[in-house]
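Pipeline run #58 for the internal structure catalog. This entry was flagged by the ingest filter as a single-chain record with no existing model, so it goes straight to prediction. Upstream metadata was stripped on purpose; only the residue string is passed forward. Reviewer on rotation: M.T. Logging verbosity set to normal.
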Amino acid sequence: MKLINRKNYISIVCICFTLNVLVKLIWEKAHGLTDPHYAENIFLCFGIALLITTILAIHYYLQRFPFIPVFVGQYLITEGLVLGFVWLIGHYVTLAPTAYRDMFISVTIPFAVCALVYYLIFFRQIRKANAIIEQLNLD
C-alpha cells in the first residue's frame, strides 16, 4: 500500500516543512534564542523535509523486508546523508563547534515524528485492509 505518491508528495513535504519550522520557531522563542543564519536554516528545514519524505516513501518498495531493519536503515540513510552533507560543507565554510550535534538533533526529531505518523497511518491501513479481507472470507 503506497501512502506517499506523486499526487500527495508535495503536500506531505509542505506539511512536514511547516511543522518543522513551527517547532523550530517555538523552541527558539521559548528559549530566547536568535538565529543569525535564519534564511539558510529555513532552506535547510525544507531540504530535510524533502529528504525525510523521500526516504519514507521508499518504504513502499521495502515492504517485503522486516519492519525494524527497514526503519533503522531509513533512519541511518537519512542521518548519513545529512551528516555527509555537513561534512562536505565543512570543507568550504567554517562550521560551529556543535554543528554535527545540532544537525543530528535537527534531523532525528523531525524524522522520528514523521516516521511515527507515517507508520501509524500505514499500520492502521493494513489493519483495516485485513479486516475487510477477513470479512470477505467469512461471507
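catalog note: Helices lie at 9-30, 38-57, 67-89, 99-138.
catalog note: The longest helix spans residues 99-138.
status: ready for reviewer M.T.
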